[in-house]
Write a structure and sequence with these properties.
A two-stranded antiparallel sheet has the order 1-2. The chain has 17 helices and 2 strands. The chain has 499 residues and is an all-alpha fold. The chain has one domain: MFS general substrate transporter like domains (Growth Hormone, Chain: A, Up-down Bundle). Helix 11 runs parallel beside helix 14.
Length: 499
């Protein structure tokens, strides 16, 4: 009898342990939304106010998250980089495309496509804080960020393609009105998807090292999206060989790329387990409170100033790559894709060194070095027509030189923003990831807006093979932006790990 009782007790103990393990396994791998037990509100000296359940995401979850970056990078490439090329094309004997908008000067120094591009970015920037605050305060069973990703992906990709489908076949006020409407819708859904998506970086990255790793993955997928977007030039030539007109060939290229982008944007929206991995807390902050906290950070303001100038310079590269290739280097437009492919392929090789150097020297000094090299590239473009080197060699040389700045600026800014999110959380207990990334996105879009406004105006000084002065001026302006960005970021004070 005692032996039977002993057996039963042992069996019960084993059964109890297995049941406990099974319950823990169910909790750790939940598929349906569950109510998360929240930690008590923190004091300034306590740990951050975060859910207890979320765990550090494995590499597979981070790769899944990064696929969304590839998608929105590709979906935004057309409007961000090809719009001026399509509506104010370079002239090599005759324009690549017919004129859909008035090509002359408006209001003394502006152009219609420049006004539309800049106005779209300004609208985008103005709604960023609204989307950011909405996203921070949203309560949704599947995750407050995924709620936006699921609803924003399709219209984001759709309106990005429709921007290249004017309603009239020649210069027309209808085309202006149509493009204005499409760009407003495009930029709304751009912010609707991207702001919540970026906020996840700080929430999935539980430590500075985690955030640096996530930023590296995002840089890789952003680069893949950018390179894929540049294939529009090559795809245009392919469709032209199939008998399509230049306009049709370009439209097919953009539509195809946006369809691919949609698939990648939907991957994290459908399959990322936000509740399990994201460090989130419910928020009820007004826009005024959230903006006050973010903009009240003087150190972060220096980062924003440099970020603005960086995006001015980078947008000039993105807008000008077709012009630099065809008019300054006097090569075929397909070489624009070659430059992008070389630069981004080379940047992949530097991702590990950039990570290593940023840990050894700090993010600040690595970014300052990248500003200087970026400026050197633009100085070469200003005088490229008189440099006695075969132009094909220059394409490859400039592509390799651009690798370090692209790797650096692709990885480190997001990590810096994530660090500021955690610093604010430790100091005040407020989790404002959406607003920090929203303000950063607003700053980025101001830079892009100004670039879209100024770039076509500079082209008025000359954008032909006989007179490329306007194109050279765009490279000179970008050089000045790099120098100013370097000066602003010198004022940023980086905090040591474990602050």
């Amino acid at each position: 009898m005692p032996s039977g009782i002993t057996y039963i007790c042992r069996y019960s103990s084993i059964l109890k342990r297995y049941c406990k393990s099974f319950v823990l396994l169910l909790v750790a791998n939940h598929r349906a939304p569950i109510a998360l037990k929240m930690a008590k509100r923190k004091t300034p000296d306590s740990e951050p106010h975060q859910p207890i359940v979320p765990i550090s995401p494995p590499l597979s979850a981070l790769i899944l998250y990064a696929m969304g970056q590839l998608g929105w990078s590709l979906a935004s490439f057309g409007v961000g980089n090809l719009l001026i090329y399509f509506y104010m094309p370079p002239e090599q004997g005759q324009p690549v495309f017919p004129s859909f908008l008035y090509q002359g000067v408006v209001l003394g120094v502006l152009t219609l496509i420049g006004i539309l591009s800049a106005a779209g970015r300004v609208f985008d920037g103005l709604i960023d804080p609204l989307i950011a605050n909405w996203s921070d305060n949203k309560a949704a069973p599947g995750g407050k960020r995924r709620w936006f990703l699921l609803r924003g992906a399709l219209p984001f990709a759709l309106f990005g393609a429709l921007a290249f489908y004017p309603v009239a076949s020649s210069e027309s006020g209808e085309n202006f009105a149509w493009l204005a409407l499409i760009l407003a819708l495009y930029y709304f859904f751009f912010a609707f998807y991207v702001i919540p998506y970026n906020a996840l970086l700080a929430e999935l990255g539980h430590t500075p090292e985690d955030r640096l790793r996530i930023s590296t993955l995002l840089s890789i997928t952003w680069a893949l999206g950018f390179v894929a977007g540049n294939s529009a030039y090559a795809l245009q030539g392919l469709f032209e060989e199939m008998g399509k007109t230049p306009v049709q060939a370009f439209q097919y290229s953009v539509a195809l790329l946006n369809g691919i982008a949609l698939i990648f944007m939907l991957l994290p929206a459908l399959f990322l387990n936000e509740k399990r991995y994201a460090r989130q807390a419910p928020g009820q902050h007004s826009i005024r409170q959230a903006l006050g906290a973010v903009l009240g950070n003087a150190n972060f303001r220096w980062f924003l100033a440099s970020f603005l100038l960086y995006w001015l310079a980078l947008t000039f590269v993105q807008l000008g790559i077709g012009f630099y290739t065809t008019l300054l280097l006097e090569l075929d437009k397909s070489m624009a894709f070659t430059f992008s492919l070389v630069s981004f392929a080379a940047s992949f090789v530097l991702y590990f060194p950039v990570n290593f150097l940023s840990r050894k020297w700090g993010k600040k000094w690595v970014m300052l070095a990248a500003y200087l090299l970026f400026g050197l590239i633009f100085s070469v473009l200003v005088f490229v027509k008189i440099i006695p080197v075969p132009k094909e060699w220059l394409v490859y040389a400039l592509g390799v030189a651009a690798a370090f700045p692209l790797a650096t600026f692709g990885i480190l800014p997001n990590a810096v923003i994530g660090d500021e999110v955690e610093r604010e959380e430790r100091a005040s207990g407020r989790q404002l990831a959406g607003m920090f990334f929203g303000v950063s996105a607003f700053t980025m879009k101001v830079g892009i807006s100004v670039a879209n406004l100024v770039f076509p105006s500079l082209l008025l000084f000359g954008k032909s093979s006989e007179n490329p002065l306007g194109v050279q001026l765009t490279a000179a302006a970008a050089l000045l932006f790099c120098i100013a960005g370097w000066g602003a970021f010198r004022r940023y004070e980086e905090h040591a790990p474990g602050y």
